[in-house]
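Entry for the shared binder. Reason: the reviewer on the internal report wants the predicted structure included alongside the sequence.
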Amino acid sequence: PGVRIAAEYLFDDDHQGTVFALLRHPVSRAISLYYYLQKAHWEPDYNAELKNLTLEDFADSKHNNPMTRILMGKRNGTITRIELNQVKDFLSTKVLIGLSDQMNASVRRFGHYFGWDDNEKWEQCSREAINRGSNKNPHPTVDEDTSAWKTLAEANKYDMELYQHAVKLFRMQVISKESEAYFNKRSSVKR
């Protein structure tokens, strides 16, 4: 099942938790995936034929709206507006949001919320994790005004809308006593 459905089954009044997510801009993620899958022969989705596809062709492949699909638990088929709204509601009520393009603030937010920043090694550990990263994939950049960018944005339109919603939530969930209370009040899944 998707994350949204799994959370409904896993968490109840006696078994509580907090879902947190670090989200990446959908087009940026798709571009990185395109280049990564061209060389990542160890990955199950590796396909040597991707080297012959353009970004626009890749946009028409099976790699569209993965963020929405993962949260819904729907690998294939058409995504409906109702399903997208259910996922947006899930993010709004049950997920502490982080953004990859706001990595420092996101890691600080997660550390503060979960109490990880109380650990004396937190600063060093988080700084090293952010600077070193994992699974980095250097690749050419693609400008927003290109047809490739626009095609990828359209192919991932539900993820684009979900991401914009997550950006708004990120701003609303600024970690402080007030916002932590806001998050806990809105969520039936508390820490």
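Summary line for the report: The mean pLDDT is 84.
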